[in-house]
Amino acid sequence: MHRLSRWLVPYASDYTGVAASLYDLGGMTVFCDAGCCTDHYVLNDEPRWRDRPGLCLSAHLRSTEAVLGVDRALVERICAFARDIDRLPPVVAVLGTPVPGILGTDLAGIAAEIEAQLGVPTFGFATSGFKTYDHGVDLAARSLMGRFVRDPAPAPDPRRVNILGATPLDFGDVGNEQDFARLFESAGWTVGLQFPMGASLADLERAAEAGVNVAVSASGLRVARWFERRYGTPWIAGCPAGAADGPLNRALLLACEAAACGRRPSGWWRAGETAGTGKGTALVIADQVVAESVRALLQARDPVLRVAVASPFSWDRTHAAEHDFAFGSEEELVEKTAALAPASLVADPTLETLALMQPGCAFAPLVHCAVSGKLHWDDSRRLATL
Amino acid sequence: MPSREKGLSFRPPRPPRPRTVLRVPGSHTLYVGPQSCMRRHALGHRKHAEPGTASFLRVEQADVISGCYERLIEEAVSELVRNLAPSVLFINLFCIDDFLGTDTDSLATWLSAQWPQTRFVFDRVHPVALDGKTTMSASKGANLYAFLEPVEPDRRDRGVNLVGSFVPLNPRSEFFSLLDAWGMGPIRQLFDCKTFDDYQDMARSRVTVVTRFNGRQGALDMQRRLHIPSFSFEPCYDPRQMEGLYRDLAVLLGQDPPDCDAWMRDVREKTARARAALGPTPLVVDSEATLAPFALARALLDEGFNVTHVLHSHHAFNADEADRTLLKQRYPHVLCIASNDPRLHMADRFRATLPADRTAVAVGTASARIAQTDRLVDMWHDEGHTGFHGIGLLMEQIERACARDGGPQPREGGPHA
User: Fold this and answer.
1) What is the pTM of this model?
2) Which residues of chain B have a CB within 8 Å of the CB of A9?
3) By the CB < 8 Å criterion, does B76 face chain A?
4) How far apart are CA B85 and CA A386, in angstroms?
5) Cross-chain Cβ contact B8/A77 below 8 Å
6) What would the pLDDT profile of B387-399 be if each residue is shown by its tens digit?
7) pLDDT, tens digit, for every residue of A69-119?
8) Helix count (H) and strand count (E) of chain B?
9) In terms of CA atoms, which chain A residue is nearest residue B36?
10) How many Å apart are CA B299 and CA B103, to the nearest integer?
11) Which of A12, A327, B272, B327 has the lowest tally of Cβ within 10 angstroms?
């Protein structure tokens, strides 16, 4: 039955993606929930919560309020609290969860009311808990950028880059986003906006000044495409990995340079290629952009190795190579993996069960926090060390 | 202090703890809901439960609108029963179901008719329905014992069911030697049951002792259906009350009341030592350490300790409401803060009466965070603290916490220490 999972963990959801994207802005995030959804996020999906808890709150909804209408009460509670803390938050966000999702709570309207009362930029995100985190990251990015990016911007700087899609859900809280920035800075670039880890409102304002956007994850790619449509900024999809002076990073930097100067169109840093001439196939299950980089590293070490990529999250069909696949359910994943019969599997530790189903399949863990959350977030790898 | 039942809620960070997933042997749990709701249960099962004892049925928004929700459950149940043949299938629903009105009684009846070898029960994780009147863990606790079948009188024994705790009580507690002296036994607890037959043996017991609030409903159900009397032995830190509990238990079991003098003497000595070590240093108590923080605070204050803050749960455990009132009446200076008070995000506001040199002693990690102290009595939900022994243990822990210069200390008491 395709909706039933016996061992595959349900993924981080859209409201988690939004909350994680807002975290470093230092604002106030209110989940329109009864308490559980907030707990899910802070205790299971937000590694930064342990040492630097943000202002993430629950609306503490109860049935009566939800049925009779929570809008006015929620506006009052949020405004009362915002005025009570030491200083007004720079941004306020109200996030939808399953209950307001099915009741049709007007989160945009609530946000407008709050903004009118507090004078603080306020967003209502129609998240629902039914979609995955990448939808939330995309939604948060478009909303924030649509609101804060200075438009029209000064002429873009061809040596200025935005890094989009570096979320703790994709990369953990182990310093990957710092490695990404360092790579570009050491190559003479100015890093403008890093979204969302490390983002600030000041960086958001100047985002359209970048000569190129680099999407380091699939959610970043969604944002980058939108950015290009809105501001004309070209993009390159590619996640830095391996040695700073290694072939992958060199190729990625060259692609960014070419895109910024208009010498190549927006696109992936390289075409996906499954085919090697060897017998065994390696399957990498991860965010599609990250998985492509892992594929490149594996093929650099063993040029005859066939490597396929799979992901349950945002999927660029135009980039997918032969044998690459998207999947929606545990049943579909098992079927497609069995058809591929991989000799090795690189995936989140919770997917080791899949490797055990394939005779003789070796397993190499690669933590994806949107899958395993708190179970393995401390084991996240710095991709620069792969 | 405004009620935290209405208002925004904050979840402070807390260290991870080992957990126990209570389970009827041979049972399986099917979670049904949006993926966001099921996620933490899936992660929790991975970490703490036996592999393969839970499955997850993802519901989409379209299912909610189209009304094919129940058919999805039927299909999923069919697959699980065919493949696993569980003794009991717990079907766990979430908040959205409160607004969909699934007729779970009819569905359970229909499922039972389809698969008579399996028992079906619906659980809910639905904080949206809490309204301060009950807790989910209490109602889930009742379902765990709902499958015990009555036994013939000649099969009844002098067993003692312990319900409510997720971990064994501290074996060093005099509670067990007392039961032994009364000829009571065996001790039966759900997490000790390896088979469904072991579980069914709980129906043979002489008495059910409720060791935590979430065991109350299950105990009442056993009393009603199986005629096993229940006795409340929830955490208590007042030695006089403890003596009264043992006296009442003796009456229930038709025994002579125990001589508690030696235990009381031991507790008095340890209390005096802890009080001498602590002096006027403030104590902060929280509901992560104990499910009865008002009762603990009141007991400590009665013994002359300087409790200044109580962080209490915003859930209605109804474990110590009477002590809450007593605290307000006798010790109005004590600052009581709901653990979900959003102002805890700015903990400085609550530190005005605490020593600036961070020498306060915290009973519980939430207290330690507020008081910014390393002098921690690292208790979790009263685990390891049973009877007079538990009171004495607490006093020893307070005395040791006073002696610390700082830095993390190993947890004491309880099987997960």
Assistant:
1) 0.92
2) 39, 42-43, 46
3) yes
4) 44
5) yes
6) 999 999 999 999 9
7) 878 989 999 999 999 888 899 999 999 999 998 888 999 999 999 999 999
8) 15, 14
9) A129
10) 46
11) B272
